[in-house]
Amino acid sequence: MSRLPKRNRIIPWLLINLSLSSSGKGLLRFFRNSPLHSLGFKLAPRSLKSLLNLLPPLSTPKPIEYTTGTPIADNQLFLGCISRITDQPAIDAFQKIAEKLQTPLSIPSNQGCCGAIHGHIGDEKQAKIFKQQNSLAFNKAKTIVSLASGCGAYLNTYLEERVIDAGDFLTNTEW
After folding, report:
1. What was the pLDDT predicted at 98?
2. 163-165, strands of its sheet edge to edge
3. Dist. CA 94–CA 87, nearest whole Å
4. Most distant CA pair in the chain, distance
5. Which pLDDT score, from 0 to 100, does residue 146 have?
6. How far are the Cα atoms of 61, 90, 99 from residue 86, in angstroms, in the given order?
7. Which residues are CB-neighbours of 62 under 8 A, at least 6 positions away?
8. Distance between CA 77 and CA 99 in Å, rounded?
9. pTM of this prediction exceeds 0.85
10. Mean pLDDT of residues grouped by 10 in the chain (175 residues)?
């Protein structure tokens, strides 16, 4: 597993931890939409600017209908942590397409971050916690669909052949 240099570990760690809490999501939205973002971008060193450029625009928050208790579908959707605040339009579109294809899809409420960034910054302990959390959340899934390719690749290291990219899932779904 590749590791980020120590000086570059704080930003990914901060983004992940902020995106996992509701107050953190609000703080990220506030920062991204405030003059502080552009001011911080102007004053930031070059290495930090390249990391700030990686933060995509934040999508409009929308409640997600999680499946609680026993999952109701063999096909389950992995949301990731950053994706929940940046990829809401893609999540909505995917759910609508799956519905039109009459492909039942559930979203386990007890899923967590995939753990990839934690693994990359050397926090193997937290990465292992997320691996265990997701293994439990998706233990009954026949197929785990991921919209985020990086998350899907990391999930594949521990949830194996059940993980599929959303595009591949739709391509393989019979109409």
Report:
1. 87
2. 75-78, 143-146, 163-165
3. 11
4. 52
5. 94
6. 9, 9, 22
7. 88, 92
8. 13
9. no
10. 54 65 69 74 74 63 63 84 77 88 88 87 88 94 91 93 92 79
3-class state of residue 62 by DSSP: coil
Instruction: Record the tokens describing residue 10, joined without a space.
Output: 């704080």
For residue 108, with 0-12 CB atoms within 10 Å meaning exposed, 13-18 middle and 19 or more buried, which class applies? buried
Compute CA distances 130 → 110, 113, 171, whole Å. 11, 6, 29
CA-to-CA distance for 38 and 42, rounded, in angstroms? 6
Helices (H), the chain: 10-19, 22-33, 35-43, 46-54, 83-86, 88-100, 116-120, 124-137, 149-159, 166-172
> How many C-beta atoms lie closer than 10 Å to residue 5's C-beta?
8
Q: Structure tokens of 111?
A: 């899923």
pLDDT on residue 150: 86
Q: In degrees, to the nearest 5, what angle opens at C-alpha 57 toward C-alphas 51 and 63?
A: 125
